[in-house]
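Internal ticket - ligand job 208, adenosine-5'-diphosphate:
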Amino acid sequence: MQKKSEGSIFIISAPSGAGKTTICRKIIMKMENVQQSVSYTTRLPRKGEVEDVDYTYIGEKAFRKMAGSGDFVEWAEVHGNLYGTSRKRLEKLMAAGFDVILDIDTQGAKQIRNSYGGGVFVFILPPSMDALRERLEKRKTRTKEDKADIERRLRRSVDEIRDYKLYDYVIVNDELSISIRKLESIITSERLRNEKIDPGWIKKNFLS
Ligand code: ADP
Ligand code: 5GP
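stdout (structure tokens):
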């Protein structure tokens, strides 16, 4: 095999509503060998979300127990809910040779940066704050709680955007199809890195 068998990690962060779920979903459909690690969360499912596909939904007590047992490679409180990346799920996907997308917030990305020592960090921005508000409103404006949640997410987005410098790449998600192509290029470039080539394959095919 030309490629080393272990996959890479792509850490994708963005202020809520910038479009990262949409982009990541399209990439998984479009590209072979890319998977997303399904996170655990204490937040309630949104309409249309599917258990163990979008998230695994658990109670706070169970979440904190998992965190205490070291079951998460990273975890954080975001918008008043807890979210964590399962160590077991991530390692299983990587060992199977998948490139793995982690759609996580900036606190989680920092933890991965400090503990994992690898990974490609991608930050997605909306074209403007007005566009961000519009996208959040389009996604969810049914109740008064929804409106308060949107305001909370907008306030928090400024703190998240401040962290953009920690990332290797920045994609401004204006035209969706272009953003998808940009993320695809980043993943393709990573796959072409010298250290991803199996030296055994080179030796067998060209040097023996
Ligand atoms: P995030 O995962 O970053 O919170 P979503 O992927 O849920 O954001 O996108 C928020 C909303 O914006 C959704 O309704 C989605 O369809 C829409 N959206 C995503 N990308 C674009 C884009 N490039 N142009 C216009 N709307 C977009
Ligand atoms: P949402 O509730 O809109 O699905 O996600 C809210 C935020 O939580 C997003 O910024 C998303 O990237 C982040 N998030 C989702 N899963 C995880 C996770 O496992 N860990 C961390 N740290 N953040 C996560």
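Auto-summary: Residues 23 and 68 are 32 Å apart (CA to CA). The two ends are 16 Å apart (CA to CA).
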